[in-house]
Design a protein that fits this description.
The chain has one domain. It is 71% helix and 0% strand. Helix 2 runs antiparallel to helix 10 and helix 2 packs across helix 11. With 378 residues, the protein is an all-alpha fold.
């Protein structure tokens, strides 16, 4: 089965990234900024009774991702069975014929997945971790401003690098480890500055800095383990029932399926033990509609999150799970600028100092060979 166009790793004489990789990283910047800004906007200043259910949003996101991946699998199978001379991704055939062939093309691949359940179970651990991460991120956005959230979330670069060494035996240069240490210092500067600001002016009444920072820390850890584990599965030697390596889209179908299963189970248990504001079980409280609190912003978040999941999978496959930190680093600057312009966020000097340190660390980590050359030439 065909997948995304393969891109060879650049040699030392070539540019750092190929055009295809640059496109993926650029899309990652846009997606990161949009999700954080819209996520913060959807949580800030909204009464608790009017907020949407994060569990429902995450479940709908996974359902959309599942539908998109199943469609891509069907298109890939049709292209394989009906070779086309055109360079278009869609098969060279009328749309009605493509739609007619889609059920059988998808059914063929689904039957292969069901014939090898052990291979599919490999993605269940990262599915559970991604589900936890996606749920807790909104708790962080509820209690932190968009810039502070973005900056503190860069700590996942450190945890991802450490987990990559443990699970993938990846080697990093001395300059890269120094960059990670400086990144940690930068995050500490931002956090300490934000604590001083909160203690000085009391901070927004609807925000809890401690809860927000704990949520970011847990999201960083779950993101690191899930991302590296998924990278190991995608780039590993696991095969489908036909002996060929399992495609990227099949892995995403499996990931979305397990996420939906875990989301359903989590939703059942959370409703069983949920309480109202008085601390009583909510068994006697009328249930809200499943899409209560959903607005155009919420649906945009679902679309962006679903597309972002596919984008991360492509970056893991064709670039590097840690190098994508370069894109998120750029996203910090862009989202901070937009947050100041449209959300009224104030940027203090501690934040600026820590943010510059973090961005410089991310750049040095991703361009360690260039940094080493500059130091040698001095």
């Amino acid at each position: 089965m065909s997948t995304l166009p393969t891109t060879a790793k650049p040699s030392a004489r070539e540019t750092a990234f190929t055009p295809f990789q640059l496109m993926l990283l650029s899309l990652m910047v846009v997606q990161n900024c949009a999700v954080v800004l819209l996520g913060r906007y959807s949580q800030a200043g909204v009464a608790a009774e009017d907020k949407f259910s994060v569990k429902t949003l995450v479940a709908l996101t996974e359902a959309m991702k599942l539908f998109a991946c199943v469609t891509l699998i069907g298109i890939d199978n049709i292209r394989e069975l009906n070779p086309s001379r055109s360079d278009s991704y869609l098969p060279d055939m009328p749309l009605y014929r493509l739609i007619t062939l889609m059920p059988s093309a998808v059914g063929t691949e689904i039957s292969k997945i069901l014939a090898n359940p052990k291979n599919s179970m490999a993605v269940s651990p990262p599915a559970a971790l991604y589900l936890f991460q996606n749920n807790i991120l909104y708790l962080a956005l509820e209690n932190l401003s968009a810039p502070v959230f973005q900056v503190c979330y860069q700590s996942k670069l450190v945890t991802t690098a450490i987990v990559s060494v443990l699970l993938l035996n990846r080697k990093y240069e001395k300059i890269q480890w120094i960059s990670l240490v400086l990144l940690g210092i930068g995050v500490s500067v931002v956090v300490l500055g934000e604590q001083d600001n909160s203690e000085g002016d009391g901070g927004p009444k609807d925000q809890n800095l401690t809860v927000g920072l704990i949520a970011v820390g847990l999201a960083s850890l779950s993101s690191a383990f899930a991302g590296v584990y998924f990278e190991k599965v995608v780039k590993g030697k696991n095969s489908g029932s036909n002996g060929k390596p399992t495609s990227l889209w099949v892995r995403n179908v499996e990931l979305a399926f397990f996420s939906l299963v875990f989301s359903f189970v989590f939703g059942i248990f959370s409703e069983m033990f949920a309480t109202n504001s008085a601390g009583d079980l909510k068994s006697e409280v009328p249930a809200k509609p499943i899409l209560h609190g959903f607005t155009a912003t919420t649906y945009a978040l679902i679309f962006l999150q679903a597309g972002g999941g596919l984008l991360v999978a492509a970056i893991v496959k064709y670039i590097d799970n840690v190098v994508k930190g370069l894109a998120t680093g750029v996203a910090v600057v862009v989202s901070t600028t937009f947050s100041c312009l449209f959300l009224g966020t104030e940027v203090k000097y501690q934040f600026a100092l820590g943010g510059i340190t973090i961005l410089a660390s991310v750049w040095a980590f991703s361009n360690h060979e260039k940094v080493a050359k500059i130091l040698r030439d001095r």
